[in-house]
């Protein structure tokens, strides 16, 4: 009897100690990277009304700040961070009854990796979907231990969640395989260029539509998406296609974390959307995230989806989604888009997860290094359509963002021409240049013997629209069309 009493007393005491201990958000943990030279948020839970002492040692001596838990037990404190560096720090949290210490905290640049499966795709790949260069990256992983990441578990929720079961990892041979490949190659490039730690917050889910991340208010006002759980299940057999839920369960838990910007790779699940719809909703999603992070106009860099068969290689619904993505880049401030038209091998025409993720991450990094970090020496823009003039039976296309060079003068592939019937025919294309002044100089001449009175030009504007034009930075030309839907 006495033994039972003592055991019950011990359990009660343990439970009391457990509830008394300050609880941190899972994002506030060992190996985390904090955004440099700003005020960052640290938060957690305690007994309502309880005061938590947060002590940092970023500037040579301990600095303690007090945070009081609200009526729901949540507390939050803002602390200043120093310049980025490789020195590890500790942070202590004291609620008066216990002390929790977070170790190996670095200060650097923190980026969110959002979107669907091509952003989620880890370094070790998916089943039957490898990542090019994986073994070499494992061998060299210890050279990049200043890259840390935290993977937010994919979770659905009808209401926004405040926390997620996750932990930060330092890159090494054992952990690199689970890191987003696109995010890792982005971080690797930024780390090498700026010589500072880089943290990645991986908040994504394969197969999700853009509606999966938009909030209830927007979906209710601007869409016909079902917002009742049973209606969602009835309309969408695949849970990853359901609206609202992934933003609430997978993205909401990170919104208190202080970040530098957002990387986004999504769109395949929205192929076939009506004209303009995806552009509007992507713009709305960026506005939503910027509002909820409360950090102003966060940089937003995103990936144009790659060519893919989509059940018909010559269809154009994939190309039209890429067009909507490009149009979004024109209306979203402080943003940038990268083209991946050249990053799919011919044998990957039916592979939705191309293997070459290094170049995707690097191109995102070029955008950030140029636009966010001010390194204008880095050329980050793909060429795009500027204007067209028609002389007789030939179209002369002018491009922008060439960086002083077109990568090829001959054997240019990907152009098509149509007349009034809008039936497109494969065209010959070449760089037009003569020594004397001519308004057509330095343009791409496009001609098809099957179209004697050309009116429209398309470039790589098919589901599997392969083109080979690049600029002086060897970045590929964005697919485009000069005809528009009427």
Automatic annotation (TrEMBL):
Short name of one Pfam family: SASA
Leader sequence segment: 1-20
InterPro entries associated with the record: SASA, SGNH_hydro_sf, SIAE
Keyword tags: Hydrolase, Signal
Superkingdom as given in the UniProt entry: Bacteria
Organism, as annotated: Prevotella illustrans
Classification via SUPFAM superfamilies: SGNH hydrolase
Bilayer-spanning residue ranges: none
UniProt keyword Signal present: yes
Domain named Sialate O-acetylesterase: residues: 109-368
The protein, known as: 9-O-acetylesterase
